[in-house]
Amino acid sequence: MSSRTPQPSAEHKQSLLIVDDEPASMRALCDTLEYEGYQTYGFTAPSEALAAMRERSFDLLLADLQMPGTNGIDLMKSAQLIDPTLVAVIMTGHGALETAIAAMKAGALDYIQKPIKLATTLPVLERALAVRQLRVEKKRLEANVRERTEELKIANRELEAFSYSVSHDLRAPLRAVSVFTQALLSDHTGHLNDEGRRLLQNVNAGAAHMDRLITDLLRLSQLNRQPLHKQPTRFGDLARKVIDDMAHERSGRQIEFVIADFPTWQVDQGLMQQVFVNLISNAIKFTRERDQARIEIGYRMDGSTLVCFVKDNGVGFNMKYMNKLFGVFQRLHSADQFEGTGVGLSIVRRIVERHGGKVWVDGQQDQGATFFFSLPDSPS
Ligand SMILES: Nc1ncnc2c1ncn2[C@@H]1O[C@H](COP(=O)(O)OP(=O)(O)OP(=O)(O)O)[C@@H](O)[C@H]1O
Ligand SMILES: [Mg+2]
To answer: Which of 108, 137, 202, 251 is the most buried (most CB within 10 A)?
Structure first.
């Protein structure tokens, strides 16, 4: 007795391509399996079976191993070139275990021995057809993924081209504003009173600020295009180099740096240095009001994920606004008090996310801030 689920309506019948050079056994097999609810298509010549495959698709190929002038394995290989999702079951002579194994090595899903017995054949066909269904589904999903990826690529390219050209095109009129206000300030200063000069200087400062914003926007959009070049990196060395390079920002300040002994991690060194530049420069900037600043650059392991942090004892911020911090041009402190364009942290986030990690923050008004970023396992 078979446990096979009955075939539903005619148009959903699964189609079997049956190839056997003996007309009588081919016909008998077709009739029996037709009776079992399959749609069968029988051929005695492999070339005709292949021709039929080019006309329509079949779910399963059931082919005799020994046929004059050819064999079931070659037929199966040719058939799978036409339809890679097709599943094949080979019919072998009794006791021909070796040839059956050879057929399976060549890509057949299973084999059945002649003389064909329905009780053993039906479960074999069912298993093979389940595999066929999986293959078809997989192919459909792969096509979907390819389509979505292509759409995303196009959208991304358009967005990048847009932000790049906006940034470039904004520059030209901005230059004009800057050049003409400077010309007014230097060549026509006699026509202006103090208030006029002050206003013009404001215009000039505004243009310079906007130029910085555009530069930052361009850098942000370039971050997406740049491929990652990962190499083993010692974060401690990176942090020390960044701090050395910031001698100017630190001049006249009392800052204690505490740097942990980091494990070596696979990252893009140039980009990771930018992460430290942005976080450490913030820490130096926002501890400006402390007589004794303390900046700690450390890490902890969270399973196989490296969690790094930069912690300071500066002015901190209200955690209510923590989601804003990593947005482009988002600032919580006034430009009068702390200079900046509000791009540093969005660059940090972009770089960390490109490495498969996350960023988050902890802080409190007047109690300092700690910026965290995670980097998943880095097999070297
Ligand atoms: N260590 C910190 N302590 C307190 N607030 C901080 C700290 N780091 C960042 N912030 C807050 O987050 C805002 C965004 O930081 P971000 O680095 O993106 O910009 P910025 O430092 O203002 O300017 P930029 O980095 O572009 O020069 C800052 O303006 C500040 O309000
Ligand atoms: Mg900053």
So the answer is: 108
Per residue in 69-98, pLDDT tens? 888 999 999 999 999 999 999 998 866 788
Last residue of a domain, one of 116, 133, 155: 116
Residue 86 confidence (pLDDT): 95
Whether 155 maps to a domain, the answer reads: no
In a domain, 141, yes or no: no
- Check whether residue 371 and residue 246 sit in a common domain: yes
Residue identifier of the C-alpha nearest atom 29 of ligand 1: 331
pLDDT (average), residues 132-151: 95
In a domain, 180, yes or no: no
Could you report the per-residue pLDDT of 312-338, keeping only the tens digit for each? Answer: 999 999 999 998 999 988 999 998 899
* Interval 43-70 mean pLDDT: 93
| Whether residues 111 and 232 fall in one domain | no
What is the domain range of residue 44?
A: 10-116
pLDDT score recorded for residue 1: 39
**Which residue's alpha carbon is at the smallest distance from atom 27 of ligand 1?**
340
pTM listed for this prediction: 0.65
Cα of 219 from ligand 2 centre, angstroms: 14
From 116, 150, 171, give the residue that closes a domain. Answer: 116
200 domain-assigned = no
- Which CATH number is 64's domain given? 3.40.50.2300
C-beta separation of 354 from 347 below 8 A = no
Q: Best mutation site among 331, 334, 347 for ligand 1, i.e. most ligand atoms within 8 A of its Cβ?
A: 331
Residue 164 main-chain phi, psi, to 5 deg: -65, -45
Structural domain count, the chain: 2
Contact between residue 67 and residue 44 where contact means Cβ atoms under 8 Å apart: no
Got the DSSP string for 248-275? Answer: HHHTT--EEEEE--PPEEEEEHHHHHHH
Whose Cα sits closest to atom 20 in ligand 1?
342
Ligand 1 within 6 A of CB of 333: yes
DSSP string, 127-181: HHHHHHHHHHHHHHHHHHHHHHHHHHHHHHHHHHHHHHHHHHHHHHHHHHHHHHH
**Per-residue model confidence as pLDDT tens digits over 220-269:** 878 877 889 999 999 999 999 999 999 999 999 999 999 999 999 999 99
Q: Relative to the alpha carbon of 333, which ligand is closest?
A: 1
